[in-house]
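About this split. The held-out portion is used to measure sequence recovery: a designer receives only the structure tokens and must propose an amino acid at every position. Recovery is the fraction of positions where the proposal matches the reference. Here is one held-out target exactly as it appears in the evaluation file.
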């Protein structure tokens, strides 16, 4: 009976104990970040599909895989089976961390598309204050928050783009009669009590013009909510000096999803509905929705529903854009 063991470098790869001496794991650097964590599940699936099914000639057509590297990939597959993680490439001769990253980029972006790629690479500049990318990548989950005249909506999303919580708090006490900060504190505190814990919080940056005096009450309302959310969610800043609440420019999200018409951003409802449909119909969807909550979410956005859920849509898209900015800029 052959004794099978797990390779410690490729957690799901099973090898015969008699063959373990053939594995060359010398290229692995224990301090190097897991390559798989730099990509979304859909991106990882795309790269692994190519690596596991392409012929040597097809692999040789990919940048950096010409010559011996393409042969080494095929020989690895023949000897040990398909790749189960991108990290497994570190076991293949001639493959090191930087090489693998470049190969993944070539597979995900075969035609170059410099215009679109550059736009995504610069996405993080629209997130303030500046935080080290290493710390952003270390965040296991984020809560994206969007607020309007009556609502505060949030989307709790993890690094695999799985929706953990998606909800909103409604208040009819905002902008009623005299402006009372105490009312805002009560209402916003109630919303914060429902918002899940996360490593980072993203707030949509209000973009109302200050030149239109008729909009001053709305501007004051949005700025008050923004300031209170910064204080209530980022209270730990005084202890460690680490910003946990970040602001995101609204138009940057609109441009990322092609929702801009001139200088105005259109509704993201249809895009969100498509994301929910893809979560059910596609093997590797862009966003993952738990099945037990998907029916309730889809019902919320049905035609005829008085609550259009625009803030919820914007909160979700903001979370997705953040991760896609981050992964494409890594």
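Reference sequence for scoring:
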């Amino acid at each position: 009976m052959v004794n099978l063991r797990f390779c410690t470098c490729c957690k799901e790869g099973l090898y015969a104990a008699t063959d373990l001496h053939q594995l060359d794991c010398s290229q692995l650097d224990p301090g190097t970040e897991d390559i798989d964590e730099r990509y979304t599940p859909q991106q990882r699936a795309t790269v692994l599909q190519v690596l596991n099914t392409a012929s040597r000639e097809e692999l040789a057509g990919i940048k950096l895989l010409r010559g011996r590297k393409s042969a080494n990939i095929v020989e690895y597959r023949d000897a040990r089976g398909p790749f189960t993680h991108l990290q497994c490439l570190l076991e293949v001769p001639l493959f090191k961390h930087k090489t693998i990253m470049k190969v993944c980029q070539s597979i995900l972006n075969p035609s170059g598309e410099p215009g679109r790629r550059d736009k995504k690479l610069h996405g993080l500049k629209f997130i303030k204050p500046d935080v080290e990318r290493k710390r952003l990548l270390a965040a296991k989950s984020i809560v994206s928050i969007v607020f309007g005249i009556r609502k505060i909506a949030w989307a709790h999303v993890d690094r695999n783009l799985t929706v953990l919580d998606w909800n909103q708090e409604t208040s009819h006490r905002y902008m009623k009669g005299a402006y009372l900060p105490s009312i805002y504190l009560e209402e916003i505190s109630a919303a914060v009590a429902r918002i899940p814990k996360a490593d980072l919080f993203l707030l949509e940056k209000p973009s109302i013009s200050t030149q239109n005096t008729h909009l001053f009450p709305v501007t004051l309302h949005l700025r008050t909510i923004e300031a209170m959310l910064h204080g209530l969610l980022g209270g730990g800043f005084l202890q460690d000096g680490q910003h946990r609440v970040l602001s995101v420019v609204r138009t940057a999200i609109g441009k990322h999803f092609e929702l801009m018409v001139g200088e105005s951003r259109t509704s993201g409802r249809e895009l969100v509905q498509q994301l929910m449909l893809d979560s059910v119909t596609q093997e590797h969807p862009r966003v993952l929705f738990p099945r037990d909550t998907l029916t309730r979410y889809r019902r919320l956005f049905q035609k005829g529903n008085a609550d259009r859920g625009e803030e919820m849509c914007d909160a979700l898209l903001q979370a997705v854009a953040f991760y896609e900015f981050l992964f494409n800029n890594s």
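Annotator remark: The chain has a mean pLDDT of 83.
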